[in-house]
Amino acid sequence: MSIVLCSWGRSIEGGTAEALTLAHRLSVESGMALRWVVAGAAVPEADALAGRHGVTGLDVISDPRLDAGAPDTVVAALAQYCQQVQPRTLLFNQTAGARLIAPRLAGRLRVPVTMNAFAVTTADQGLQVSATAFGGDTNVVYALSAPVNVIGIVTTGITAQAAAVPTRPERRAVAVDLTQVEERFTVTSAPRTEGPRLEDAEVIVAGGRGLGSAQSFELVKQLADALGGMWGGSRAIVDDGWIESSRQVGLTGKITRPALYVAIGISGASQHMAGCSAARVIVAINKDRDASIYRYARYGIVADALEVVPELIKAAKA
Ligand SMILES: Cc1cc2nc3c(=O)[nH]c(=O)nc-3n(C[C@H](O)[C@H](O)[C@H](O)COP(=O)(O)OP(=O)(O)OC[C@H]3O[C@@H](n4cnc5c(N)ncnc54)[C@H](O)[C@@H]3O)c2cc1C
Fold it and tell me: Whole-prediction pTM value?
């Protein structure tokens, strides 16, 4: 009987160490072995992390078709893996990709899926899962009694911690047959993904509707440049067409964990905070002193962003 964390693609996504931390705690509590299946080319990175986080077995599925992370191929590979290994609990680091893969894998295996989990513990009849619901506004506790469960973990609230006793994971190659898999969707126009990713940025300056216009949003880009960071924004301004969706931070956007997150003209809705609350330091600039963002910010400037940000750009460049 085992707990398995599922990863795929060319690299290990941010949040994986945190997901492994939760998975290891669950494995200690339940007495079940912790395995990690890596479908794709990210194995060298996985090797180093696995031992640090108490993984006992690293299962590797190598097929060039998996490197691109195409959903039908990944689901087929993981489903075949599950038939061979028969895990009890399948965990996913809930990235944008995992939101697509985990429910489909659960459907393929005909087992329940629980997404948006932030804590998982054992209970008398199975597992107890704490998760957010209704777009992040509510927390719920699910009692899972099915013999096999798929769970997506939101890792922003979890601090990565190495296992007390490091392991030397046994590495095992798992053979799957992907020759019959056909991708049912073709991506004809993908968001630009070259260059650094928001998920990996150490400094992020993000703007929201409070900036008033796409033109004023240029200030966000200038401050990000001056601080040597990346820029992003809230869903409100993606919906209004100011910035492309690949720059959206939040529950339905990018999950980030920078050292510094500067939120400008952003209200601090729970769905936005789901993508940035793991930042080490949040600085908020909002003219409403009662804005929710101030519940999360370590430093705040209650002021008109259009007056303050040009000054900050000057100071950062000085
Ligand atoms: C299922 C679901 C998923 C969602 N996913 C996401 C997501 O991934 N990411 C996301 O961001 N949102 C998401 N949302 C939307 C979210 O609920 C909010 O509507 C959105 O984050 C609000 O964006 P905002 O803070 O930019 O705008 P607003 O809520 O309009 O806030 C603007 C803020 O700017 C301040 N302001 C105004 N003028 C100025 C000024 N001159 N100077 C300084 N401050 C000023 C105001 O006081 C206000 O606090 C989701 C919603 C749902 C229901």
Answer: 0.79
